[in-house]
Amino acid sequence: MTWNEAHGAVSRAFDDWRRADAENRAFLRLTASWSQTAYEREWTQAEESLSSVFDPELHNGDEHVDMFHDAVGGLWPDSYQWIVEAAVLRNGVTAFEVYLEKGLQEVVEPWEVTYEGQPHMVRLYTPKGFTSPGWRTLVKGHKVLKSTVETPDVEWARDLRHLLTHQNGELRAEEALNKFRDTVAEKDAGEFDRASVGGRVPLGVARVTSVLDALAAVVRHADVAVHTYGPWGTQRQQVPLNELHEAKCLAFLRE
Fold first, then answer.
1. Could you tell me which residues come within 8 angstroms of residue 30 by beta carbon, excluding any fewer than 6 positions away?
2. Helix/strand/coil for 123
């Protein structure tokens, strides 16, 4: 059966990715709703606590702000939401990379070939000391299957994931600012709400969702070939092992 998401004619790797993608989106949506309720409750409790002990000779009337600050550990709603969005974006990019690996594994395993006169199992090439293939191996492998997985959107998303992971989203140079600022969102923003060098990269639900959508489009494009060459695909017997080997994407393990 040809690839058909609606009828379940997809790879196992796609099913795993689709589940992870759905969880990511649900986490983004539900956490925003739950956190708003929780923050409102903490704010109300702070106001009520101040009201119960308020003395006009001792208090200024805004002490509940500090009480709220202490209750939430200094994590105000905007910072909380940013952390959630950063986590979802990082997870989304990682789930995308995991799909690329699992998809290729599904195509090449468990093929057996005769190599140097001995039977060997075919595996994706993984550098010594690592448990997963490198990025270039994944890109080249899917390219052999006629799928382009290193699109400009993917490169941008992976670079943003790197910024979030290794710099906690800090824009340390003008180059990073120009690459990651959200010019559309800044049109109606005040001067102090615009991205700047030294500040955090702007995210937002809409931006994170658009990244997930871009990655999803590439996954769906790639999975047509993965399913076609996979265990239940129409071209299972035509897996281009020679081409994958020439692209240095394979390793051969003695049984």
1. none
2. strand
